[in-house]
Design a protein that fits this description.
Helix content: 40-55%
Strand order of the largest sheet: 1-2
Strand content: under 5%
Number of strands: 2
Number of helices: 3
Largest sheet: 2 strands, antiparallel
Structural class: mainly alpha
Shape: rod-shaped
């Protein structure tokens, strides 16, 4: 069979026959009855696994509630990167996750950074 008659499986990426209905490598249905790239994962696209900066920024934002200011700042940066990626590639989704990383991570990152600076200043003045 010629290589032009083969296409990559949308799930595993292995080359399969263009007319195949099931991938012989991963067993997933492909073609009209198979998964589409816009669906996302088994949660229907709720988890933006194709937009890692947005997803990691989201989790860093959530965990930035714990007093450790660098996590919030990381969430802020990754959230911005996730928004840019979602704008460039709308099929990857993740805008809500990116915004949560930006807002929550940015807020707590700034709060804990400010508190750290205040503690350092008060400790220096106390000497």
């Amino acid at each position: 069979m010629a290589d032009s008659e083969r296409i990559p499986c949308p799930v595993c990426g292995e080359k399969i026959v263009a007319t195949a209905s099931v991938c012989r490598f991963c067993g997933e249905q492909v073609g009209e009855g198979g998964p589409s790239r816009e669906e996302g994962d088994s949660t229907g696209g709720v988890i933006p696994y194709k937009n890692m900066p947005a997803l990691i920024g989201y989790y860093c934002g959530v965990f930035s509630i714990i007093p450790c200011f660098p996590i919030g700042l990381v969430a802020l940066v990754l959230g911005i990167m996730g928004l840019k990626r979602a704008k460039q590639h709308p099929e990857v989704k993740g805008k809500a996750h990116a915004w949560i990383g930006i807002i929550v991570g940015g807020f707590f990152g700034l709060v804990y950074t400010g508190l750290t600076v205040l503690v350092i200043i008060s400790a220096a003045m106390g000497q």
